[in-house]
What does this fold into?
Amino acid sequence: MSSTEKNWTARLRKSTLESMEPQDLLPDNQPAYVASWIYVFGVLTIASLVMLIATGLVLTLEGPAWWHVSSVGHFWNSMHLWSVELFFVFMVVHLWGKFWMAAWRGKRTATWVTGVIAFMASILTALTGYLIQTNFDSQWIATEAKDGFNAMGIGAFFNTLNTGQAILLHVALLPLAVGIIVVWHILLVRRKGVVPPIDNDATIEGGAF
Amino acid sequence: MVLKVDPSKKWTGPTRPYDIIKEGVIAVVVVALLAAGLSLFFSSPDEKAVTLKSWSNTNAPDFVQTATGELAGTTTSAGYGAPYNHAAKGPTLGPLKLQDWAGVRIPVDPATSFVTEPLAILNDSSTNDAVTAWKAASADQQGKWATAYADALGKKPDAVSLEDTANAFGPVPTMISSLLVMAKTGALDGALTTSDTPLPTNFTKPLLFLADSEGYFGDLAAKQHLGGDQWGVMNETGSWPGQSWLWLFSLWYQVEPFKSSGNADTLVMTLMGFLTLCLALFPIFPFIRKLPYKIPIHRLIWKKWYARKL
Ligand code: HEM
It folds into this structure.
């Protein structure tokens, strides 16, 4: 091992800053095949996530009881809810789009896997969101969901009936986790470049796995 | 002609101008407008939270029966097991007793936590005497009293208290009547949320108690089509879309063998964990990774590219 290979800082620089040209990270052109509506859904998913964070931050301003008593609060709650619904619709279309494009070709398995992790982390974040509505729906979901988590031995640590725990998870740890995994997912896409179309030459396709 | 490309190599073919930042900004504006439109048109649901107070005032007989069930040990939470108590081993997955192994980390003994502990706060002398008599009795005796009262209440579904003509109920009617008084004023909600901590953020006890009620809590949920056998996990109150992404998770609860299995939760959770792992492994999954080649939806997606003039 040469000295730079042992140097943590050098290794971090190589695997991050030097792994990509500025042109890869923020390109002003794309391969000619990047011309389809399906590409829009990844971006729409990010846009929904941006809206989720923005509307969620508005909801934190006056505490969990605010939206039950204020029409302005209720509007922002609606914005947050509809952003969630859009987020998942876009994400699922994106997922199946990437499936039918076999977008994992050419050593892009990690991109696919980080996508799946983002999907799961989003589901857990959404569940904690439903738990902290502080209304009848959240009470019911809490009492139903506890059985699932208890059955796996998780309920002893993540207690859906503990509203305080759910609030903190929903506004801090979980969105942070989703954010980090999404950034990672997108950096992987930028670094590899967008996967080329499936062509007729099966030998090359086969060799790429 | 077939263009041979190795998808792991950097693209060297033709390109087209593309502005990803502009695309991103437009996407945020579009989503903001869509969300605002949907919010203005459809708003969002907010069915008021329920409490032990609203329960006991709306359906006192159901409260009385459930509370007696807590003493008799016949409710769901009284027989739950971990993480609340040692009443049962809980669901298992073959030799794996996951629920039991996690241990009793959130101790809740319904007879004590929901009834005798809160009654001590009431500080009423006849109630105190009743609780003292209850505590002094053997578990066997307690069971007989509570079961006798529960059976008698079962025969009079509209009653909130019964005379002890056969001298079979012991201190149970006094305790339950006092608990009903506390519940109706809201004092019980306070007692159950502040028993472990002075500043409540944890609703484990009142929610477990409420969830034991079929006549009130369960009934309200069924009216809002939220029952487990009504795809409840993914539904929302009213007719709003809920967590529709849980459709597959919900589906298993509607079909055999899960539907009638006492272990449904463990089975469904395990199955979903396994299926998620499969999804993550699609890129190396034998048959599945070939599907996009066999069903050529990519021909539509990259239509322009395949139609290009070379
Ligand atoms: C929070 C959720 C997600 C966000 C924000 C997101 C965002 C994106 C974006 C912006 C792209 C590049 C543009 C495009 O091709 O659309 C992309 C590519 C990709 N995504 Fe996602 N994604 C998410 C979830 C998923 C999921 C659930 C999967 C699949 C299981 C997935 C698989 C992929 C793959 C394989 C690519 C690479 C495509 C290529 O190289 O052409 N993503 N994602």
